[in-house]
Amino acid sequence: MVNDIETDYLVIGAGATAMAFVDTLLSETQATVTMVDRYHRPGGHWTIAYPYVRLHQPSAMYGVNSRPLGDGLVDRTGWNAGLYELAGAAEICGYYDQVMRQTFVPSGRVSYFPMAEYQGGGRFRLTTSGTEYRVTVRRKIVDTTYQGVTVPAMRPPEFEVASGISLVPPNDLPGVREPYDRYVVVGAGKTGIDACLWLLEQGVAPTDLTWIMPRAPWLLDRAQVQPLPLRRVADLARDFAAKHEAVMGAASVPDLFDRLEAVGALLRISPEDRPTAFRCATVSQAELRELRKIDDVVRLGRVKRINETDIELDGGTIPTGPRVLHVDCTADAIRQLPVVPVFQDEVITLQSVRVCQPVFSAALIAHVEATCSDDSVKNELCPVTPNPRTDVDWLRYTLSGNAEQLRWAGNTDIGAWLKSSRLHPDMAPPMPEDPAEREAFEQQAVALTQAQNTKLEELLRTHEER
Asked: In the prediction, which pLDDT does 249 show?
């Protein structure tokens, strides 16, 4: 027997982006929503993430618009001291559970089906009971899975591993009960950084760590992505001016990165390594100092296989053995996929409108869906920018951010929504109160942004022609 359901929106998934989208939709419309998710609780990849994972951005900038995440406190201890708190996996999962059970379901407009596999065509099946459902969708299907996050626990390693070799995903590190002679962390992305920092925090000596780093990453200083009032207005103006001067004075892409590093806009782990990757990961200065204590950094490309006595990489081999614990941090958490229109053929495909800010992007897309009827206009307001991977993608990342400011500056509706959105924290100097001064300020900001974009496009074009 197939059970029939009618709904305005069928949302596939109940992860972070799905929750942000539905929250805004509930706040701004009277629509009904059916959410279908394969996991046993809301939160998506957070429900199976390694337990010591924390946000790389302040909790104040994450979650859903209607409910704060965390207490808005500044950490006083640890390697994030002096910066806004960073929620961990358990707190985030509990938060989404509260949003679902205290806001979404009690609204009477959300039907939530966990432990369900979506089969396409508006049909899904509960994996525990086998009960099947057929959904009649009055408005849109919302696909939140297209850019789904992959964490190491979701898949086996992508390289060969000999029997008897100890290799675990980062999730299993807290289960270690006897010390190993050595720990080998494979991967230099956010997960690899987190694994290294966690091991150091647990007392593992830096000399007992090997870090296989196929590509060194450019990192963001977390102190520079703090919302007001923690950051002073003078600091915001100084950092903007320094970054603008670095861009405008650059003679080439390599020169640009040298200038950005010199003013603190970008960081690197090792002064000897020229980074070739950029994935929006942030570190505090204290975390960076800890990471720099790891001297045994392997720069021989990707791991091909781990044998009983050595690790074979693209560019050579290094020794290993039975008393070594290998930690696989190579999952591509945020993939760079082909861009598809967000609004197309009665389907909304959630993607990043603001680079590296998926929950904000989802909430904005919901607002545009709620307030605009023309899909072509919606897509103009919500153009997708692919997730960055390489160092050169930093230019595209910045171009996208600048384009957002120009695109939304003249849109009164979106401007008002941005001011009210918790997921769009205040990270800009306050506008002058006098109307004439405000207009002059806005014109100057637009002129500087346009000039910066022209320069970045020139640098990018010249770099790609070489």
From this structure: 97
